[in-house]
Write a structure and sequence with these properties.
Helix content: 10-25%
Number of helices: 2
Strand content: 35-45%
Distance between the termini: 62 Å
Length: 251
């Protein structure tokens, strides 16, 4: 049996490292999936689905003037990295008609500014609010890095005087399956800008006869499979949570 010399061993290790790096680079080039949810004007859900990341080129728009007259984009195309929140949105806009057009301005030194998604355009006291995994960010969406499985939320919200606070983001939890006509408990939390949660009272939930109590809980009864949503005035609606009945799930 031939001996493995130190030189051969080192060469084998080097080759293994190169192959590993090549595989990693290949996987990175293919991108990854992250969950994108966009809530537009009037709390209308524009998209809620996993999106595969990819570096995307979009045109900036002179109509993106939500930061004041003369703040619109140049009209030139810009390339947005796929592993960013805005890159995920840009990629999704190529796939989902409700997200087009994107009104993006490139007139600022700090980066790209988002003014419009489809028919939902920021104006007055409204602006696009970005959260990743329930936390807001201090950087723009074009540099906000995302990772596989992240939950990315863009919501058009109002921030008015005197405190200019962003609304809370509702998150609904409950069972994935239930029995027709048999009540079950759900809970609603509200997440602030820092990602801190607290039970939210007075929230309406699909299939619940009463709003949530002080502990954020209420009882839901369903006669057919449904996607539950939690809504409350001044709050960002929750993501849709599917509940299956008798093995049948909502489409």
């Amino acid at each position: 049996m031939p001996r493995i010399t130190p030189f051969r061993l080192a060469a084998a290790c080097t080759l293994a490292t190169i192959m590993s790096l090549a595989l990693t680079a290949g996987a990175s080039a293919k991108g990854f999936q992250a969950e994108l949810r966009v809530v537009g004007s009037g709390s209308k859900l524009l998209v809620e689905k996993p999106v595969a990341t990819a570096t995307t080129t979009v045109k900036t728009s002179p109509k993106a003037e939500c930061f004041g007259k003369g703040s619109g984009g140049s009209g030139d195309p810009v390339t947005i990295n796929g592993n960013t929140a805005m890159g995920l949105l840009a990629r999704a806009s190529k796939l989902v008609g409700a997200l087009r057009p994107l009104l993006i301005s490139d007139s600022f030194d700090f980066g790209l500014a988002l003014c419009g998604v489809g028919k939902s355009v920021a104006k007055g006291s409204s602006s696009w609010y970005l959260k990743i995994n329930h936390k807001s960010l201090s950087v723009g969406g074009d540099v906000a890095k995302i990772h596989p499985g992240d939950e990315v939320l863009y919501a058009l919200v109002k921030t008015e005087a005197p405190d200019y606070k962003y609304p809370g983001e509702l998150v609904l939890t409950g069972p994935n399956a239930a029995q027709p006509g048999v009540p079950f408990k759900v809970r609603v939390l509200s997440y602030d800008e820092k990602g801190k949660s607290r039970p939210q009272a007075g929230v309406k939930v699909t299939g619940a006869s009463e709003p949530t109590g002080a502990d954020g809980r209420t009882t839901v009864t369903l006669s057919k499979p449904a996607k539950l949503v939690a809504t409350a005035a001044g709050e960002i609606p929750s993501a849709r949570e599917p509940v299956c009945l008798d093995g049948k799930c909502p489409k």
